[in-house]
From TrEMBL:
Transmembrane feature ranges: none
Protein name: Uridine 5'-monophosphate synthase
Active-site residues (renumbered): D293, K295, D298
Molecular function GO labels: orotate phosphoribosyltransferase activity; orotidine-5'-phosphate decarboxylase activity
Alphabetical list of Pfam families matching this protein: OMPdecase
Residues reported in the UniProt entry to bind substrate: D240, K262, S355, Q414, G434, R435
Protein's pathway: Pyrimidine metabolism; UMP biosynthesis via de novo pathway; UMP from orotate: step 1/2; Pyrimidine metabolism; UMP biosynthesis via de novo pathway; UMP from orotate: step 2/2
Residue ranges of domain Orotidine 5'-phosphate decarboxylase in the record: 234-450
UniProt organism field: Rotaria socialis
Domain of life: Eukaryota
């Protein structure tokens, strides 16, 4: 495999690391310039980089089904690892093809496959995150990335926030150490570079939302479960705000902490299909589902119209909707039929029980009927809004509103329990939390607290 110090010296000789004063794309003057693209012209060095990365991969003990290289420099590296060690490879295109299949991911995979990302350099982590987002949107599980070189500009932290562990062959401080040791650069240059790195720590890139026109073909139930597992979140934020611009802003702040965002489109004063598309794009980027809490309650024919027509055209953007089972199974039939017109998976949550005091849903026969209806239409009904565990299997997700850490209720009948109680005593999988987060001073921080407490209790109690 060769010594790591030798490899660093070779990289220095081929000018993969340059020292001086370089103007970066951002306008900053940098005392170091790193460009690993040159390695493709030096087959021995290229192979050596791949071998070292494979070593790290082996040592990480991560089990996986495939490897995905990030274009461009990491692609030849990933090819060598895959060919030498007989591992299946995937490629994520930079752009979807605009002819033929329009695929973004090339190569064979199955939903829930575990995939490792391979990258040459990590600075902020944004290219790894972008690749992970695309792979996750197709149902792959991404937990780890192997990089050759870490610039130590906070990429590790940024990736961790997106639930990706970083494994690297070399850190910039190690490279500087080897080069000083072998007399290639002075102590002073090394210190200069360290100072520059310290002063240029990156934050998770702010979202640059592009309209993404991707088609997701994974069944919604599976997608939901994958999102929960990957993000370690069973938190649904109930964004009961009356302004969609504000919800869009909020979704960027808390998007990485939640598995679902619930809205009431009929309370929005500024609803437009353009704005809801923006929210949809954020939900794709930050990997959460959109739930329209419409609480449909009419006959099949009417709900078909309410779901597809009017100002809101809910079926076009909501991954999930809430539905009262009161009218009988015809309501689910109507919605399911309408959903077939959409080229994306759709589903619903049946309201089995309510959290409000004196709810008329507190009736055993009614609840039994709801469960039977869910079982009959289990392709479309993926779970319940409930206040207790209604089935013994894990097929249906139990979503529970009425959650607050330091309040017991409001003036209008809401009754609260803590996240742990909601899971333990009320059988929740998903916690629906509204005002506890919305009314807090730091919504992002509070969302993170509910995410952590909620998921920890969920793991312990459901033993997942
Ligand atoms: N919600 C309930 N209870 C229910 C059902 C829905 O609270 O039984 I069905 C909704 C109402 C609100 C959110 O949109 O869940 C809870 O918000 P708070 O956490 O702010 O109470």
């Amino acid at each position: 495999m060769g010594d790591l110090a030798d490899l660093v010296l070779q990289l220095y000789d081929i000018e993969a690391f340059k020292f001086g004063s370089f103007k970066l794309k951002t306008g900053l003057q940098s005392p170091i310039y790193i460009d690993l693209r040159v390695i493709i012209s030096y087959p021995d060095i290229l192979r050596s980089v791949a071998v070292h990365m494979n070593e790290i991969l082996k040592r990480s003990n991560v089990s996986f089904d495939s490897i995905c290289g990030v274009p461009y420099t990491a692609l030849p590296i990933a090819s060598i690892i895959c060919a030498d060690y007989k591992r299946p490879m995937l490629i994520r295109r930079k752009e979807a093809k605009n002819y033929g299949t329009k695929k973004l991911i090339e190569g064979k995979f199955q939903i829930n496959d575990r995939c490792i990302i391979i990258e040459d350099i990590v600075t902020s982590g944004s290219s790894v995150i972008e690749t992970a987002d695309s792979l996750r949107a197709e149902g792959l599980q991404i937990t780890d990335a192997i990089v050759f070189f870490d610039r130590e500009q906070n990429g590790e932290n940024n990736l961790q926030k997106r639930n990706i562990r970083l494994h690297r062959v070399l850190k910039i401080s190690e490279v500087l150490g080897y080069l000083v040791q072998h007399g290639k650069i002075s102590e002073e240059i090394s210190e200069n570079v360290k100072e520059f790195i310290n002063q240029n720590q990156t934050q998770l890139p702010t979202l640059n939302i592009e309209i993404e026109n991707k088609t997701i073909s994974i069944p919604i139930r599976q997608r939901f479960q994958t999102i929960m597992k990957e993000k370690r979140s069973n938190l649904c934020l109930s964004a009961d705000l009356t302004n969609l611009d504000e919800i869009i802003k909020l979704s960027k702040q808390v998007g990485s902490n939640i598995c679902m965002l619930k809205i009431h489109s009929d309370i929005l004063t500024d609803f437009s299909m353009d704005k809801i598309q923006q929210l949809k794009d954020i939900s794709r980027k930050l990997n959460f589902l959109l739930l329209e809490d419409r609480k449909f309650a009419d006959i099949g024919n009417t709900v078909k119209l309410q779901y597809t027509k009017g100002l809101f055209r809910i079926v076009e953007w909501a991954d999930l909707v809430t539905v009262h089972a009161l009218p009988g199974e015809c309501i689910v039939q109507g919605l399911e039929q309408s959903a077939q017109s959409i080229n994306e998976p759709r589903g619903c949550l049946l309201i089995a029980q309510m959290s409000s005091k004196g709810a008329f849903t507190d009736n055993e026969d009614y609840v039994k009927g709801v469960v039977e209806c869910a079982k009959k239409y289990s392709d479309f009904v993926i779970g319940f809004i409930s206040q207790s565990r209604l089935t013994t299997t894990d097929e249906f997700l139990h979503c529970t509103p009425g959650v607050h850490l330091n309040n017991t209720g409001d003036q209008l009948g809401q009754q609260y329990v803590t996240p742990r109680q909601a899971i333990d005593e009320r059988g929740a999988d998903i916690l629906i939390v509204g005002r506890a987060i919305l009314d807090s001073i730091n919504r992002a921080k509070t969302a993170e607290e509910y995410q952590q407490q909620g998921y920890q209790a969920y793991e312990e109690i459901r033993k997942i």
